[in-house]
């Protein structure tokens, strides 16, 4: 026993053994087990871990970290997602409303856009390095609203300014005027069906009162699923592709780029972004709210 303790002390001095390991060894000694060698621990297949690992690598698999996602859905979130998609899908089947739908969102536009490039390399070679834009790089927020025919209204906020409820409500007033001018058929007769995500300024009491005053039909938004938000999934992905590698020196240059981008998009682009929503709602219901639904997307 004394010899074993001496060996243990030597390990503590030279090898910096963790306290948890020391406790485990003393538990062994107390039980009468003085063997300092680790015992072989076969897995469920009665094979050492090293053998299973080698076979896994040969099959082409690599060990990597999980991908972070914004939210871990609770059971209630998942049920809400399914029930809302089911409600919207059935409602559109009974009385189509997607041509009355107005949607929008916000996106940061960075002045200097670094383009990440893909490249092929051997497994043991590090990837090429591209400096990432700083966390506080110069940027401006885009607020935009659109429908199946195109852009209704957009606005660029002053540099680094963000959205709050008061600002959002003033934007809604301008959007209402734009809809009355560009889409009188839904402003005066059919009625606006309004779609927005669950960002805090969008769901504040002030905002809800404003939308109630307008008399717009506000759709519920399923929790935490970007491809059910047309701006995030459809418009902003395409816009970001057009921004990659671009550098702007002024707000005027950014506005010029946006005007050109919006004007050059064909009619089919806007139609696909809105009129295919019912397909996405159906897929969510059919696949029990899965976050891994694959939908073909062209930008």
Automatic annotation (TrEMBL):
GO cellular component: condensed chromosome; nucleus; site of double-strand break
Signal peptide start and end residues: 1-18
Any one GO molecular-function label of the UniProt entry: histone H3K36 methyltransferase activity
Keywords of this entry: Signal
Keyword Signal: yes
Biological process according to GO: DNA double-strand break processing; DNA integration; double-strand break repair via nonhomologous end joining; mitotic DNA integrity checkpoint signaling; replication fork processing
Domain Mos1 transposase HTH: 8-33
InterPro entries for the chain: Mos1_HTH, RNaseH_sf, Transposase-MT_Hybrid, Transposase_1
Protein's name according to its UniProt entry: Mos1 transposase HTH domain-containing protein
């Amino acid at each position: 026993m004394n010899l074993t303790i001496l060996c243990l002390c030597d390990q503590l001095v030279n090898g910096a053994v963790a306290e948890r390991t020391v406790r485990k060894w003393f538990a062994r000694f107390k039980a009468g087990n003085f063997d300092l060698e680790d015992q072989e621990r076969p897995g469920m297949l009665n094979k050492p871990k090293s053998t299973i690992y080698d076979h896994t690598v040969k099959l082409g698999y690599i060990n990597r970290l999980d991908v972070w996602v914004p939210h871990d859905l609770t059971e209630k979130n998942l049920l809400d997602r399914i029930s809302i998609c089911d409600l919207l899908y059935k409602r559109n089947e009974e009385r189509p409303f997607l041509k009355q739908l107005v949607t929008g969102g916000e996106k940061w536009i960075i002045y200097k856009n670094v383009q990440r490039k893909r490249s092929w390399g051997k497994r043991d070679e590090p990837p090429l390095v591209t400096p990432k834009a700083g966390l506080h790089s110069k940027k401006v927020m885009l607020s935009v609203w659109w429908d199946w025919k195109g852009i209704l209204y957009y606005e660029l906020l002053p540099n680094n300014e963000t959205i709050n409820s008061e600002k959002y409500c003033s934007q809604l007033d301008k959007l209402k005027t734009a809809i009355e001018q560009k889409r009188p058929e839904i402003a005066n007769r059919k009625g606006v069906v309004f779609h927005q995500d669950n960002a805090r300024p969008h769901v504040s009491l002030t905002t809800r009162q404003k939308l109630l005053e307008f008399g717009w039909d506000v759709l519920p938004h399923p929790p935490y699923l970007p491809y059910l938000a047309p701006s995030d999934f459809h418009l902003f992905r395409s816009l970001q592709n057009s921004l990659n590698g671009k550098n702007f020196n002024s707000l005027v240059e950014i506005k010029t780029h946006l005007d050109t981008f919006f004007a050059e998009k064909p009619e089919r682009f806007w139609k696909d972004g809105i009129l295919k929503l019912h397909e996405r709602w159906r897929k969510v219901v059919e696949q029990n709210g899965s976050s891994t639904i694959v939908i073909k997307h062209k930008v």
